[in-house]
Each structure stands twice: as structure tokens, then as C-alpha cells.
Write a structure and sequence with these properties.
Layout (H helix, E strand, L loop, with lengths): L16 H10 L12 H7 L2 E5 L3 H4 L10 H12 L2 E5 L5 H6 L3 E4 L6 H14 L5 H7 L3 H8 L5 H7 L9
Parallel strand pairs: 1-2, 2-3
């Protein structure tokens, strides 16, 4: 395209652009295509699998790994395993339909996903359900994040609602 003019170049791509920003803080690397936790490890060591804003039953049909079918096979095994699957997605996707009654579907309103994430983090912290030793060892900046989640409401927040909003707030 640059040979014909009017092309200014690009950096990254739509699929991995945001991931490359957050991944170093979550898994310690910017490389979104590095091997993460394998499907057999997930099946062996997980009681609950959360699918947040993704539709793998659809996208695995066109993924780079679609020729070997291993991604789709994992989801068939997950479905048969009886493990708890939670899908967080405003749309009822093919994946949610695939799991049917084996899936708890949470449908947040669009653009409220970050508030939901913060509510989950707050609830895990408030109820002592987070693994502090793991977070201290394998993450950077968790102490600041935890302090933010537990922060006192600002004056404007107090004027607006008179109390700290908890995850139960509707």
C-alpha cells in the first residue's frame, strides 16, 4: 500500500494491541503468543474456568491452530468435565450456547466490564479470598492496586451517594 501512497504504517494489530499493554503486568511478558497455561493443565488444576469477553467456539474455527482442532477439543473436554464455567459477555455467544446449562452467563452492560473487574477484586480482597503470597511474588504493583480498591471515597463520591459503593450496589 505504501507504494501507491497514502499509507502511514502501523504498529501492532487489533487482536493483540491491548494485550501487549497489559500482559507484562499479568504474565511478565509482552509476547502475547508465548505459551501460556496449557489446556491439559487447566483441565487438571482448575475447578472454575472464567471466559471473559471471548467467544472461542467461534474464533477457534478460524484461529492459526484451527487445523489441528486442539482448541475446540479442549472445550469439548471442559464441557464433559463438569467443571464450573462462567462466561462474562454482554452477548449470548456461540460459546455460551455450546456450554448450555453447564455455564453461568453473566451479561454486564456494555462498558461496565472494568467496574465489574474492580468489584470482583474488591470482593476477593474484602473476603480474604485472594492469594497475597502469590500476588506479592508474581506481580508488580499489586500493593498499589489493593490500596486503590480499598481507598476511601472522595468528597464528590460521598456527595453523590453518601456511602462507599460495594460490589452488591445495584
Amino acid at each position: 500500500m505504501s507504494m501507491a501512497g497514502g499509507y502511514s504504517g502501523h504498529l501492532g494489530d487489533y487482536s493483540t494491541g491491548a494485550a501487549q499493554v497489559i500482559m507484562p503486568h499479568v504474565v511478565g511478558s509482552i509476547e502475547v503468543y508465548e505459551q501460556q497455561t496449557t489446556h491439559p493443565m487447566i483441565l487438571e488444576h482448575s475447578d472454575v474456568v472464567v471466559l471473559w469477553g471471548l467467544n472461542p467456539i467461534n474464533t477457534l474455527k478460524i484461529a492459526w491452530s484451527s487445523t489441528d482442532g486442539s482448541g475446540l477439543e479442549f472445550f469439548h473436554q471442559l464441557k464433559k468435565s463438569g467443571k464450573t464455567v462462567i462466561a462474562i459477555d454482554p452477548m449470548r455467544s456461540e460459546t455460551i450456547e455450546f456450554f448450555g446449562d453447564n455455564c453461568q452467563w453473566i451479561a454486564p452492560h456494555p462498558m461496565t466490564d472494568v467496574a465489574l473487574m474492580l468489584g470482583v477484586a474488591y470482593s476477593l480482597q474484602a473476603n480474604g479470598k485472594h492469594d497475597k503470597a502469590f500476588l506479592d511474588k508474581y506481580t508488580i504493583g499489586y500493593d498499589k492496586f489493593e490500596a486503590t480498591c480499598r481507598a476511601k471515597p472522595t468528597a464528590s463520591q460521598k456527595r453523590r451517594n453518601g456511602h462507599r459503593q460495594s460490589p452488591a450496589y445495584q
